[in-house]
Here is the input.
Amino acid sequence: MTDTPAAARRTPDRPLVVLENVNKHFGELHVLKDINLTVHEGEVVVVIGPSGSGKSTLCRTINRLETFESGRIAINGTELPDEGKELARLRADVGMVFQSFNLFAHKTILENVTLGPMKVRGMKPAAAKEHAMELLTRVGVDHQASKYPAQLSGGQQQRVAIARSLAMEPTVMLFDEPTSALDPEMINEVLDVMTELARSGMTMVVVTHEMGFARKAADRVVFMSDGAIVEENTPEQFFTNAQSARAKDFLGKILTH
Amino acid sequence: MIDLIEQAQLLPAFFLTIQLALWSAAFALILGTVIAILRLAPVGVLNALGASYVTLVRNTPLTLIVVACSLVLWGQLGIEPASRRLPDGSGNPDFISSLNFRLGVIGLSIYHAAFVCEAIRSGVNTIPLGQAEAARSIGLTFPQSLREVILPQAFRGAITPLGNVLIALVKNTTVVAAIGVFETAYRMRWIAEFRPADLMPGFALVALGFVILTLPLGLLVSHLSQRLAVKR
Ligand SMILES: Nc1ncnc2c1ncn2[C@@H]1O[C@H](COP(=O)(O)OP(=O)(O)OP(=O)(O)O)[C@@H](O)[C@H]1O
Ligand SMILES: [Mg+2]
Here is the structure.
């Protein structure tokens, strides 16, 4: 798969992430109900929905941090394999940004970003470092490169986490509420980086309640409720003219805040 | 006093105690880490194997393990971790003492590995789940995430319990007197038998010797556990 020519990889409307009839349970709880979702190359999809509706589980299932029982998930044409080396390789192509940053606490900022390229991609230390510094500059934390995560603010840590994902040169990036653990004054610095990323053509699936970001950067909003995708639309249509009762109810609640 | 130390050969005995402790600590650390890895691996059979080892060894008295090393490992199975001959072919005059020493190290290592394993696991429990998930999400395989992310943080979080295992190990070396290693406790018995009048100062000297060994160890451990703690 990896030796597809670049021209073929950039074909517009090429499906990158495909979920077909995906079902998942946590014990009795049916968390993902017959999920069908296709994310095309370069597309930015915002996933929105009430707490407990399965948004995080959806994200985590896409890169197989969670297993699922039935259906199929393919990334870039390759179906997710079972646990093992093959899966690790595929995961390297899917960037993931967590709500709680999850930077490696015992490594410096620079080491956080170079670890994957060196261990997974076999990059030489000098090249990995150079690339990492470029990315840290891009997200605006290059001055902190030799510090440890605990010495950085939440917003800075999350930007480093984005750089760490980008260092793997992923084909798609997943964001699970990347700004909801942040103090309000730090939210925008992270959203700005994400908006820039979206403009640069990165394929993104973003779980967020930041409507400003959805309006500015998303091509499509997917509304989830009780483990199912209830509604999909452009941001403009979704926020001004939601169709389902559950979406209207949900929007009513978050818009009053 | 000086003459008691000399006659009872307390200095070479303490030297032997230190050697026992160092070798056993090294092997227990390696074996304990391997067992901890078995218990962390995403493979049921390995987990069960690691768990059985810990349960079995932790609940067996150390004396029994050490004596079993001597009587079963060597006596019955004929496993001889020392050589009867020197490289030049002549008989090894230290055969028995080095055999007993090595059997003692094996017994101590087997026993303390179980505690090392549990200490490391307690260290693993200090690591938030997200660390392993982040490691997996950038494409590290299980062995890679163990080596790069989990174990380094686990060791740092386990310095205090590991230190306690080490201190216990130093004191537990006295058990191998039972299989004829002429370490400190063995010499203690010698004093009781041949210099009964000096029993009290003898005890005091040996106790002091162990304090000299373990006290700095304890200080070092608390220093390291603060210096190397992972800031979150
Ligand atoms: N590991 C787990 N074991 C059991 N149940 C779980 C587990 N993880 C999540 N759940 C349950 O699955 C449901 C969906 O959870 P999920 O975290 O995907 O929701 P979410 O939409 O991300 O919610 P939030 O907005 O609060 O983050 C919830 O009811 C949750 O309690
Ligand atoms: Mg969530």
